[in-house]
Amino acid sequence: MARKLVTTLLLGAMMALGVASAQATVKFDSGPQTAPGSTQVTDQYFAGQYFFVPSGETERTFTDVQLYLNAAVSGTMPTVKLYSGDTSANVPTNLITTLSYSSKSSISPYDIYTYNANVTLTANTGYWIVMNGTSTETFQWARTGDLAGVTGAWKPTTGTGFYNSAFANGAGATQWDTQYDNRLFKMTVNATAVPEPSTYVLLTLALGAVGFARRKMNRKA
């Protein structure tokens, strides 16, 4: 009887975990469009792409971004970071995290590099994906023409006062030069829903009950 109880509780905990880790949804996608060119990224020349999380957004746990590069990358990977935006200067301002390289795939003529994170973003806030190269290797981040072909709920709107892409010269990305609505870098941003507090409560209760049942079984043994 006790074993059945433990099994039931474990299944409940697994279901709660499944709810908390729902499948990711594409929130910003400029990848499918034809790219008119690319921008070289080095250790001294940074490039950033803007996206906006609107008010009322529930799917705002950032999971990963896929970056489209025109040229193959050798053993060294570009550094990719997530910044929040400065609404007065319209540039990347506050570093949130450095993303972790995950995998590479190819869709001719691009090499697509996936970088992961698990960060809950704030609604009604702008963010930037910023890439830079290394002292020994440069990268070509593919570009697209404008906002017209971009899809997803996190697509910035024309005329909001935000710049869509930005460039920085000098190590540390302190001097930004912005481009407004006429150039976007190719990337796909994915996110999942923020779990409801009740999900965490259910999970905590289920795991606690499993622990209690196991201790009871051990005492009987």
List the main descriptive attributes of the protein structure presented here.
221 residues, globular, Jelly Rolls, five-stranded antiparallel sheet, 2 helices, 14 strands, alpha+beta
What does this structure look like?
This protein folds into two domains: 1-22 and 197-221; 24-192, Jelly Rolls, CATH 2.60.120. Helix content is 19%, strand content 43%. It has helices spanning 2-20, 197-220; strands spanning 25-29, 37-41, 45-53, 61-69, 79-86, 91-98, 100-107, 110-120, 125-132, 139-144, 165-169, 176-179, 184-185, 187-192. The strands form three sheets. It has a six-stranded antiparallel beta sheet with strand order 6-5-9-3-11-12, with no helix packed on it. Strands 1-14-4-8-7 form a five-stranded antiparallel beta sheet, with no helix packed on it. The protein has a three-stranded antiparallel beta sheet with strand order 2-10-13, with no helix packed on it. Strand 7 (100-107) and strand 8 (110-120) form a beta hairpin. Helix 1 runs antiparallel to helix 2. The longest helix is centred in the last third of the chain and has 24 residues, at 197-220.
Main sheet record: 6 strands, antiparallel
What would you report as the Rg, rounded to the nearest angstrom? Answer: 21 Å
Number of strands: 14
Any low-confidence stretches, pLDDT <50, length ≥5? 198-202
Broad CATH class of the largest domain = Mainly Beta
The topology string of helices and strands comes to HEEEEEEEEEEEEEEH
The strand order across the widest sheet is 6-5-9-3-11-12
Strand content: 35-45%
* Structural domains: how many: 2
Cα distance spanning the termini: 14 Å
Helix content: 10-25%
**What structural class do you assign from the helix and strand content?**
alpha+beta
The whole-number mean of residue pLDDT values reads 77
